[in-house]
Amino acid sequence: MALTPERTAAFAAIALGHVTREYPHKPDHILTSDADLYCPRQVHPIFFGSFDWHSCVHGYWLLARIRRLYPDLAESAAIESLFAEAFTPEKVELERRYLDLPMSRGFERPYGWAWLLMLQSELILGGGGYADRLRPLADTLAARWCAHLPLMTYPVRVGTHANTAFALILADRYARVVQDIDMRKLMAQRARAWFGHDRRAPAWEPDGEDFLSPTLMEALAMQRLMPRAEFETWFTSFLPDLGHGAPASLLTPVYVSDRSDGRIAHLDGLNLSRAWAMRSIAPAVSGAVSEVLNTAAHKHLAVALDTVTGDYMGEHWLASFAALALMGTE
Q1: Distance between CA atoms of 288 and 290, rounded to whole angstroms?
Q2: Residues 6+ positions from 43 with CB-CB distance below 8 Å
C-alpha cells in the first residue's frame, strides 16, 4: 500500500484535470441582492474548479505536495505552469477580498480554512515564491481561525466538513511549518477543554454521509497537540478496548452503494481518512493497539484506493484523501 510513482502520476493527472474545471460548481455563497450573482471564475479566480472552493484548495494542496516530494515526475512541469498562472498577486487579492464581504464570516469555516493553511504550508516548504504570493489570504484565514477558537464553546463532532478536530489537525501542520507557537498553544488548550475528559468513545459511526471519523479525528488531533506520554494515557481511556478489536464499527471498512451520489460517495473518503488516522496514530501507541490500528488501516486502504476515479462526484476530491492515507502530512 505504497504511493508508487505510477499512482502519484495518476493522482497528479486527476487533480490537474479538475482544479480548473469550472462546472459543475457548488458555491458557499450568500445572496443579499441581484448584485451578488456571480460566475465562479470571476469571484474565485484561483479556486473556482473542483466542484467547490474547498475541494479546489485541497486539489492544489495535492499538486503542491507532489511538486515538492516528486520533482522529477513528468507532471511536475504542468504543475509548475499552473501555479505560475494561478498564484499571482492580483488573483490572491481577489480571493482575499471576498472575505471582506459582510456575509462571508462563515465562508468555508473551518474546513476550507484549514485546507488553505495546509496548502500554504506545502508552498512554503516547496519554495518557488508561491507562498509569498498566497500569504495575504493565508494570514487572513489564520487570524480568523485564532479569533474563532475562543468563541467555540463546544466542538463540532460530525463526520463532515464542520468537524473541529479535523481542522485542528490541518491547522497544526501549518502552525508547525510557520513556527506559530501561540497558535499551537491556543489549539492545544482548546482541544484539552473540548476533548480532554472524553472516555470510552462509543464510536457510533459511520453515519451515512461521513467522510471523516469523528472518533479517530478527535484522537489524531489530540495526538498532534499533546505530548506523547499524555496522549497515550488519554488514548487508553478514550478507546480502552481497542487492543481487543473493539469497537468493531470503527475498525471495519464501510460499504459504498452508489458512487454517483455525492453524499454517499463520502464514504469512500471515510475509508481513506480512517486509514490515514490509524496509520498516523499507530506509531504513538504500543503493543496490540498499534497492531490493531495498522491491520485495520491496511483493510481500509485495500477497499478504498481503487475508488478514487470513476465518477466526478468522488474524483474531484478523493485523490487528496488517498494521498493523506498513503503519505500523511509530514
Answers
A1: 5
A2: 29, 94, 98
Q: CA 232, CA 306: separation in Å to the nearest integer?
A: 33
Burial class (CB in 10 A: 0-12, 13-18, 19+), 71: exposed
- pLDDT over threshold 80, residue 194: yes
Tell whether omega for the bond before 89 is within 30 degrees of 0, i.e. cis: no
CB contact burial 179-214 (16+ within 10 A = b; e otherwise): ebeebbebbbebbeebbeebeebebebbeebbbbbb
Positive/negative CA dihedral, 113, 161, 153, 329: negative
Residue type, 57: V
Distances (CA, A) of 124 to 172, 322, 324: 15, 22, 18
Kindly list the distances between the CA atom of residue 166 and the CA atoms of 7, 82, 94, 241, in Å, as whole numbers in the listed order: 25, 28, 27, 23
Residue indicated by cell numbers 468513545: 201
Closest CA to 208 of 262, 248, 154: 262
pLDDT in tens, 234-254: 999 999 999 999 999 999 999
pTM exceeds 0.70 for this model: yes
CA dist 178 and 174 (Å) reads 6
